[in-house]
Amino acid sequence: NSAIELRSVSKWFQRNTPAVHQVSLQAPRGALLALLGPSGCGKTTTLRLIAGLEIPDTGEIYLAGARVAGGGDWTPPEQRRVGMVFQDYALFPHLTVRENVAFGLNGRSTRERAARVGDLLALTGLADLADRYPHQLSGGQQQRVALARALAPDPQVILLDEPFSNLDAVLRKATREEVRRILRQSGATAVFVTHDQEEAFSIADIVVVMRNGAIEQIGAPHEIYLRPSTRTVATFVGEANFVPARASGRCAECVLGSVPLAAPRNGPVEVMVRPEALDLCPDAAGCGLIEEIVFFGHDQLIGIRMCDGTLIQARTGPRIDITPGARVAVRVQGEAVAFPYDENREPRTK
Ligand code: ADP
Ligand code: MG
């Protein structure tokens, strides 16, 4: 039984282009789902449809097995047991941390409220800041207040729209571990929106890649990265080399030699190889010529001109045996993904 299920949900704001198009997805109870995609691809609209802030034009939405939208059913947002954390946190400036968190707990006894607020402040590490006002808090602390407030009424689903976008890079990494821990402990099923693949990969159990209002792929982070179902997904979630090849079953022949394929194919294809899947070995007779090295410390990106003119990119740890002008033998580690050959696409030579 899924905590959240969307069946062919579409939403149009303009006549010709749907903001959300035929979106179907399921989130198991307690899962952490990321909606990943570029700006304007329909992520926020999808969250708002789940929350009940938008009405779908077609399709159905189920929460904990009950239909809340579609097929003539409609459950208003306040009855959906859905908590939301907005991009700008939307805290009440004239209320303290404690009062902000207590806000959604009307209708409970004073004692019950105080206990629940105490639990949430402890869970989010805000107990010492309970009497401060939002303007007296850092960005990361404000975000935890927003999270505590959304979790206080014990929602079955929590929705977070670009929760880390207002934090600087250092704080963002620390906060994302913290938010993941809090969400796990709360037991709620969470959906969060991001345009950052690293954020999606490091937090979510399930990543939903969206493009132009539709879902491109749903999978575990490593599946999305290593087995992208389309070229668009492959390039959106990381750096990728596409190398023309001839496939025969589980093997493809190309300038990188014989490359094992994740799934059988036949005929002309392009194999997708991640830069870190390339193994380099200094070899005066090797097919690769090192053109450029960008050194980052913990790793480096290496531009390699292959003997057929193709330019490929490799990522290795820091190493001293490879320098510009040297020749290398290049091998692919692990299995590669093959896409149908696209005649209109020029191989990368510049
Ligand atoms: P994302 O969150 O992925 O950036 P959105 O869901 O906000 O994308 O928007 C998807 C598309 O729908 C965009 O083209 C956006 O301009 C349009 N859109 C979103 N909300 C509205 C609205 N209330 N009225 C008109 N168009 C909207
Ligand atoms: Mg958005």
UniProtKB/TrEMBL annotation:
Matching SUPFAM superfamilies: MOP-like, P-loop containing nucleoside triphosphate hydrolases
Superkingdom in the source lineage: Bacteria
InterPro entries linked: AAA+_ATPase, ABC_SmlMolc_Importer, ABC_transporter-like_ATP-bd, ABC_transporter-like_CS, ABC_transpr_FbpC, Mo/tungstate-bd_C_term_dom, P-loop_NTPase, Transp-assoc_OB_typ2
Pfam families given in the database record: ABC_tran, TOBE_2
Q: Name one GO molecular function term.
A: ABC-type ferric iron transporter activity
The Gene Ontology CC terms held by the record are: ATP-binding cassette (ABC) transporter complex
Task: Tell me which CDD domains the record gives.
Answer: ABC_Carb_Solutes_like
What EC designation does it have? Answer: 7.6.2.9
Per the database record, which ranges form the ABC transporter domain?
Answer: 4-237
Q: Which SMART domains match?
A: AAA (SM00382)
Q: Which UniProt keywords apply?
A: ATP-binding, Cell membrane, Ion transport, Iron, Iron transport, Membrane, Nucleotide-binding, Transport
Enzyme class, top EC level, equals translocase
Q: What is this protein called?
A: ABC-type quaternary amine transporter
Organism this protein belongs to: Roseiflexus castenholzii (strain DSM 13941 / HLO8)
